[in-house]
């Protein structure tokens, strides 16, 4: 809830619809009509239309299938490059979190940013891309993190498919939209939304690992994500799951118990085998019984006339 209030406040300030003191008193049911339809409708597990055509930061015509191609999970963001506040807050917050994520952009995951302003072109997209990559401070492939522009029709089709509601405000000349990033599986299914301007590194890492179905990250990431944490949509964060932790503890206890029983059984078998060997050796040494007699005869070269 806190994240939602903070995002709405940033949105209102960014579009100039209210002043800062008024924002503190504004309730969700009192949003101005200019924000009608603005927000996120989560379409989890639904497909992203990969055949939509855009233009990348180099001026090349591309489709989303070039970047969502079955290889890596993707962080998809809808922004616009001349946005006065909220887009910068969102992308800067994402970059701040990704700096502390030990995963490689362009190898473990991808980012695709699409402008919602059809009047923006490749030059502006390239300029923004250079700035955010410099802020990230990582060596990435030339094809990593494309900044795209496109037609109004294709922008609206993409926004509708992922549930990204926005409106153009004619009075201010700006777009009203929310702060959100979308995680997409390698095959193009929507996995998760983060609606905020701050993105803790652990949340970003877990979301990427989750979108990849455990194919990205370490064994420890998978263990923690699928056995200790769960996504809390209210908090907008991964939180410890008491049920998962108890289940993991019970599994570990059962494994240790079975292993202990097997070890005890093995030790018991060894102990029985040791007792049997000792008894046979004593009988042989004393020459008592048939076995002792036979061994004695063999040692002296067999029976003699």
Fold and architecture overview:
Helix 3 (86-99) crosses helix 6 (201-211) and helix 8 packs across helix 9 (289-299). Strands 6-5-4-10-11 form a 5-stranded mixed sheet, with helices on both faces. Strands 1-7 form a two-stranded antiparallel ribbon. A two-stranded antiparallel sheet has the order 2-3. The chain has a domain at 35-213: Glutaredoxin (3-Layer(aba) Sandwich). By secondary structure, it is of the alpha+beta class. The protein has helices spanning 2-15, 20-25, 86-99, 122-136, 152-162, 201-211, 219-227, 242-286, 289-299, and strands spanning 39-40, 53-55, 61-63, 74-79, 110-115, 147-148, 164-165, 167-169, 174-176, 181-184, 190-194, 229-232, 237-240. The radius of gyration is 33 Å and the shape is elongated. The chain is built from 9 helices and 13 strands. Helices cover 45% and strands 15% of the residues.
Q: Which short descriptors sum up this protein?
A:
305 residues, alpha+beta, Glutaredoxin, 5-stranded mixed β-sheet, two-stranded antiparallel ribbon, 9 helices, 13 strands, disordered N terminus
Give a short overview.
The chain is of the alpha+beta class and 305 residues long. The protein has nine helices and 13 strands.
């Amino acid at each position: 809830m806190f994240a939602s209030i903070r995002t709405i406040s940033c949105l209102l300030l960014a579009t100039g619809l209210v002043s800062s003191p008024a924002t503190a008193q504004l309730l969700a049911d009192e949003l101005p009509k200019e924000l009608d339809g603005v927000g996120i409708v989560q379409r989890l597990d639904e497909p992203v239309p990969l055949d939509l055509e855009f233009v990348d930061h180099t001026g090349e015509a591309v489709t989303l299938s070039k970047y969502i191609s079955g290889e890596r999970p993707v962080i998809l963001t809808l922004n616009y490059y001349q946005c006065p506040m909220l887009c910068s807050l969102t992308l800067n917050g994402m970059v701040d979190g990704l700096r502390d994520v030990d995963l490689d952009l362009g190898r473990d995951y991808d980012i695709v940013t699409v402008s919602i302003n059809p009047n923006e072109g490749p030059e502006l997209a390239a300029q923004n891309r250079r700035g955010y990559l410099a802020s990230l401070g990582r060596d990435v492939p030339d094809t990593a993190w494309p900044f795209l522009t496109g037609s109004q029709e294709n922008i609206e089709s993409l926004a509708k498919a992922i549930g990204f509601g926005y409106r153009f405000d004619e009075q201010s000349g700006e777009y009203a939209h929310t702060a959100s990033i979308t995680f997409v599986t390698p095959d193009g299914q929507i996995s998760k939304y983060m609606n905020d301007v701050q993105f803790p590194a652990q949340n970003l890492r877990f979301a990427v690992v989750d979108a990849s179905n455990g194919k990205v990250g370490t064994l420890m990431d998978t263990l923690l994500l699928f056995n200790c944490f769960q996504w809390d949509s209210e908090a907008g964060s991964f939180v410890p799951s008491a049920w998962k932790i108890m289940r993991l503890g019970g599994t570990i206890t059962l494994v240790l118990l079975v292993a202990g029983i097997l070890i005890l059984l093995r030790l018991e078998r060894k102990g029985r085998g040791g007792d049997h060997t000792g008894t046979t050796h004593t009988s042989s040494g004393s020459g008592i019984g048939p076995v002792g007699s036979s061994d004695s005869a063999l040692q002296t070269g067999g029976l003699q006339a």
